[in-house]
Amino acid sequence: MAEYISGAMGPRRIRSCRPFSKMGSRFPEMAPYRAAPLLAAALFLAGTTSPAAAEQQISDPVYQARCASCHGRSARGGFGPALTGQQFTAKWATAGVDALTKFIRETMPPAEPGSLSTDAYRRLAKVLLHANGIAVLETGEGPEAPSGPTKAQILSASSNEGGGLLPPVPNDDAPYRAALERRAALLRAVKPVTDDMLLNPPPADWLQWRRTYDGLGYSPLDRIDRTNAGQLQVAWSLALPSGTNGIIPLAHDGVLFVNSGGVVLALDAVSGSTLWAFNRPISAAPMSQPRGMALYDRFLLVPTIDNHMIALDIATGKVVWDHVIESSTGTLRFTGAPLVIRDKVIFGLSGCGGTSEPSGCFIAALDARSGREVWRFRTIARPGEAGGDSWNGAPAEERFGASIWSGGTFDTVNNLVLFGTGQTYRISPLLAKPTRPGTTNNALYTDTTLALDPDTGKLVWYYQHMGRDVWDMDWGFERQIVDLAGPSGSRRTVVTMGKLGILDMLDARSGKYLSSYDMGYQNLVTSIDPRTGRKTTDPALEPQDGHPITICPHATGVRNFPSTSYDPGAGILYVPFVRSCMDMIWAKGGDYEITGSTRAPEGADRDFGGLAAIDLQRRRPVWTIRQRAPSSASALATAGGIIFYGGRDRLFRVADSASGEMLWQLALDGVPSATPITFTAGGVQYVAVTTGGGSPNEATIRSLTPELASPGTGVRLWLFKLAGETP
């Protein structure tokens, strides 16, 4: 069979079945995120059924539950085409079970490709091969299958014994070719992302997870402002593959890049049309997917949920290089976005340490052009190393945690890349009093800001925000670099807030502690040393073996993955927050010794979420918005004097950044548990946010508001613009 299939760059000639297993990464029409109407019709998988075909009903329960309603109980067709007969045999007789498994996984079920287990897809492939009398080839795709019937033969068939629909005839007309050329022209116009662009991003673009190296999460765009925000309307929306959300899109030269569930899309930001799609399916998804990507040169740097860092060509979606991070037990994972600094892709790993991942967590750098690892810094201090005496004598295999949950930031003045670490879950070694001289139980480098040389990975300075954290109150979120007034002029300052809702400020050059601000929603820390920042905790709240203690907040924190945003003109930090508590138990033994259930804070106040504006220079609140629904989305401040954020009530909101006055809100299809961005395309300012998914953070706080039923599992990308504006 010789046919043509369309892609972003125009019609392509294809041969038999072998290329179909890779169509999702090259042609948007083949990508598994969209509804391929029929397994057979879309790609001529099946045709009419041979009179000799078996009529026996297929007994496999997976087939009957997921396939029979369209393709018939005996695979001879129904609403959908038959999956038995000469065309199926011609295409798949020598291809092998691996190739057919891959094809079915990338296209079925139509509404949610890839949603079944790997074993289920492989089982279906074997069932269909067996139903056609084809011997199962267990490994490899096999040689290229013989050519199937021509289009003329299909159209001239005298009968449709298997029922269902005949394959469609490709419509290669002038409007179709014009659409392809428009999309190709848009991709050709995308400029390489240079070091200078990352240092000073164009106002129209959003090139990395917090937009700028300093991590502010702020946009200088002001077309949408406090005077017209009430005129916002939906520009377009697009259903995405299922995932755990937290997604941060990127925008560059009118192209929007988004990753959901392992499917990466390049979209026309004005129309939402797919320019290219890349899919790398995996066997199982961990509890959270990577929340960000990065653009550099001609590359889109994509971390995957099975620990690959992939560089895709931004014009085609083609893989340039693929670097895998090995995991001993599968607990190691990417969750934060990569950061590119002078040809180096810098990132951290989470979910490692202790007996589950003995090598521990780390921060690493890859060469941006080859994917080769350049350096690695381990975040758990091991015996005999600097800081190794801070684990109360525990052996290396009992040192767990210090995960890197979020992306890093770059201090361009002091040439430092900054990351924050999480806590440990194995708390037994830290609860005992140190007995050896010179030994502490602070557990470095948990709950720490790490400042590394981006060229070498060497540690320049560190500051531990909370030593001996045995309550799961980590500090693994964004570090922001701001200029504040000091005793002798402007002082470059690192600002970060942990789960406790306590904000610490450090000197950016040295890591020296400067000051703190407590939002007042925690009961664990009773005092903070004004000279060192050391935090004293309530002795009554020490973990008890098998006996619950009540801690505020819950382990999801006053703040968590939803990021803060800083307006450098106003000097105000905007913090999405949640009020909560937990009954915590020390479950002695094993790697995970902290368990806790969510509970509402005591008192009559039943508003659990909100947005706080904090004056960093004066370390005092400016205003606070309170709402019943816990906050779920990152904050986004702009030069228009507005702030975007969202909550578990599905409302996406805009407030006046100076007063907190509500200017606009819209109920979306799902919870906006992600990070919004803003950019321009075709001269129009857009705001983008994704909804849906079920992050661990959302799962633990939903019990606070039982009246807010969780919506379905779908994920959707939403774009907004001002009414009446056109590109």
Molecular structure report:
The longest helix has 15 residues, at 174-188. The strands form eleven sheets. The chain has a five-stranded mixed beta sheet with strand order 3-34-35-36-37, with no helix packed on it. Strands 4-40-39-38 form a four-stranded antiparallel beta sheet, with no helix packed on it. It has a four-stranded antiparallel beta sheet with strand order 5-6-7-8. Helices cover 11% and strands 30% of the residues. It is globular and about 80 Å long. The protein is mainly beta. The protein has eleven helices and 40 strands. Strand 23 (502-507) and strand 24 form a beta hairpin. Helix 5 packs across helix 6 (118-131).
Provide keyphrases for this structure.
globular, 30% strand, 727 residues, five-stranded mixed sheet, four-stranded antiparallel sheet, disordered N terminus, mainly beta, 40 strands, 11% helix, 11 helices
Distance between the termini: 42 Å
Shape: globular
Instruction: Give the rounded overall mean pLDDT.
Output: 85
Helix content: 10-25%
How would you classify the helix and strand content by structural class? mainly beta
Biggest sheet statistics: 5 strands, mixed
**How many beta-strand runs?**
40
The order of strands across the largest sheet is 3-34-35-36-37
Low-confidence stretches: 1-55, 140-165
Whole-angstrom Rg? 27 Å
What's the tally of helices?
A: 11
Strand content: 25-35%
